[in-house]
Predict the structure of Factor of dna methylation.
Amino acid sequence: MMQQNFSDHFEKIIHENEKLKSELDREKKDVLLRRKELEKHEAKNECERRKLIEEGEEQKKADEDVVRLAENHKRETKELNNKILQLKKKLDAKQALELEVQHLKGNLNVMKHIHSFCLNLSCQNVRSAEFVFRDFHTPVLLYHQSMFSENFIKKPFFWENE
């Protein structure tokens, strides 16, 4: 019986050993599967980490581009505002010159009208003076002419008397 017990015990140990071996093999397979999964996850995480780093670098570059574009926009806006101010000043100066030209043209027209009026007035004064002269001096002139004629006819010249 002892042998039987020993044999049963030995079989039991072998059976347990096989059972443990089979469990160990199963756990070994599970560990290998987990290791493969972990390696896949690690590779995936590494890929995602690189991707995140690249995205971070791209984001950093995009942020720098946005800052550069904002600075360029600010500079261009400032330049355009300065140009607008210069153009406004030029426009104001041009309008002032045009206004002065119009003012001078107006003064010139006034002077032309005054000159024309003065010429008309002078001509009228000359005509009036001619009329006055004729009206006043014509009888006097006629009188003197008649006196001269009478004297000429009545009195012979002094050389004829000699």
Observations:
- The longest helix spans residues 2-154.
